[in-house]
TrEMBL record:
This is GTPase Obg. An essential GTPase which binds GTP, GDP and possibly (p)ppGpp with moderate affinity, with high nucleotide exchange rates and a fairly low GTP hydrolysis rate. Plays a role in control of the cell cycle, stress response, ribosome biogenesis and in those bacteria that undergo differentiation, in morphogenesis control. Its EC number is 3.6.5.-. It comes from Muricoprocola aceti. Residues 1-158 form the Obg domain. It is found in: Cytoplasm. Mg(2+) binds at S172, T192. The keyword Zinc-finger does not apply. Its main location: cytoplasm.
């Protein structure tokens, strides 16, 4: 099954903790601190694999983590850095923050490899904290925590031209005739269940064309299967509307063009404004009793709007040369730079806001126990080594500076009462 979307959780590696130790050797009465630094956590890296065509590798596994850094050791031993995790994706994959929908990276063009989440920095060992006044530091720095992010992956095919139309109008037949692509072709709706790419070669120059699976009315709202593939026309510069000029299934080709444009407009207003060409297919099957020419009716309707109409037969090849050369000339008039989605979301800038709330509440089970919770508290506990003197002093200053101590006092805390924070318990003394 063609997979062009996935939602996964990625996690970088936590930095290793710095080590607390002191030099102990024979004949060395008071060796100084020699705790080593922690290793850096591994990064999460996305890399383009040009041999991949779908996101099928991410259909069954949904969490990917880099390796944490090792803790530092004694004798100034530096902890090993954690291994990076490299996630392979097909070219054209757009990585977005799942919550906001903002683009983190577009894996196309020159961007073949990008670090999405950086591993945590390793903590410093106690060797770095010795001063003239503190020659025996019993404190080492914890490693920086890992970053975790839920991202959505969307494969948007890279093509110059998008071939759109209702089901069974001959898109796959046209693609097979003008390129080396070999799409499945059959006489029933939704034969094409994945976008097919082909290269049109015209005297040494040409363009990439994508056959987008058939749209139906309401596709932009999720009706039918066509909406699954609308994202694949976001990179295309020119749209070819293929219509059944012979109305072999009783459809009105003029009405079809308007309906397709309405679906494009509903999905993305900007896409509907791109240059368009109409290919009036199946002219070899046209037969009308009243003598009206359906191709001429298409021309009368759309050419005054600046949309050129070409009568073609995808089966016999009639009219295809004129259509393809016109499309190539149209592309040559447009900017040649590939369509890249700019980065909108920067994971490195995501930080817990110091103004995030916290709560101070009295326990319902015990009048002498108070509970402090909130993102600010979690962040502080994640960065602080409470087992060291210096770390615990930092913790006490944090409670004072943020006003948490004052709130506890306002809530009626007395000496000897207990304060609980995320599994930790402390006795309160002024």
């Amino acid at each position: 099954m063609f997979a062009d979307r996935a939602k996964i959780t990625i996690c970088s590696g936590k930095g290793g903790d710095g080590h607390v130790s002191f030099r102990r050797e024979l004949f060395v009465a008071a060796g100084g601190p020699d705790g080593g630094d922690g290793g850096k956590g591994g990064d999460v890296i996305f890399e383009v694999d040009k041999g991949m065509t779908t996101l099928g590798d991410y259909r069954h596994k949904h969490k990917f983590s880099a390796q944490p850094g090792e803790n530092g050791g004694k004798s100034r031993c530096h902890g090993a850095n954690g291994s990076d995790i490299v996630l392979k994706v097909p070219e054209g994959t757009v990585i977005k923050d799942a919550e906001s929908g903002k683009v983190i990276a577009d894996m196309s063009g020159d961007n073949m490899r990008q670090i999405i989440l950086k591993g945590g920095r390793g903590g410093l060992g106690n060797q770095h904290f010795a001063t003239s006044t503190m020659q025996v530091p019993k404190y080492a720095q914890p490693g920086k925590p890992a970053q975790e992010l839920v991202v959505s992956l969307e494969l948007k095919v890279i093509a110059d031209v998008g071939l759109v139309g209702f089901p069974n109008v001959g898109k796959s037949t046209l693609l097979a005739h003008v390129t080396n692509a070999k799409p499945k072709i059959a006489n029933y709706h939704f034969t094409t269940l994945s976008p097919n790419l082909g290269v049109v070669d015209l005297d040494g120059s040409g363009f990439v064309i994508a056959d987008i699976p058939g749209l139906i009315e309401g596709a932009s709202e999720g009706v039918g299967l066509g909406h699954e593939f609308l994202r694949h026309i976001e990179r295309t510069k020119v749209m070819i509307h293929l219509v059944d000029a012979a109305s072999t299934e009783g459809r009105d080709p003029i009405e079809d063009v308007y309906k397709i444009n309405e679906e494009l407009r509903a999905y993305n207003e900007e896409i509907s404004k791109r240059p368009q060409v109409i290919a009036a297919n199946k002219i070899d099957a046209i037969y009308t009793e009243d003598g009206e020419d359906p191709v001429q009716k298409l021309k009368d309707e759309f050419e005054p709007q600046g949309i050129k109409v070409f009568p073609i037969s995808a089966v016999t090849g009639k009219g295809l040369k004129e259509l393809l050369y016109y499309v190539r000339d149209l592309l040559n008039e447009l900017p040649q730079e590939p369509m890249i989605f700019e980065q909108e979301f920067f994971p490195d800038e995501v930080r817990i806001d110091d103004n995030l709330p916290y709560t101070v509440t009295k326990s319902e089970e015990d009048d002498h126990t108070y509970i402090v919770e909130g993102p600010k508290i979690e962040k502080m506990l994640g960065y602080t080594n409470l087992e060291s003197e210096k770390g615990f002093l930092f913790f006490q200053n944090f409670l004072k500076d943020t006003g948490i101590l004052q709130e506890l006092e306002d809530a009626g805390i007395q000496e000897g009462d207990t304060v609980r924070m995320y599994g930790l318990a402390f006795d309160y003394y002024k």
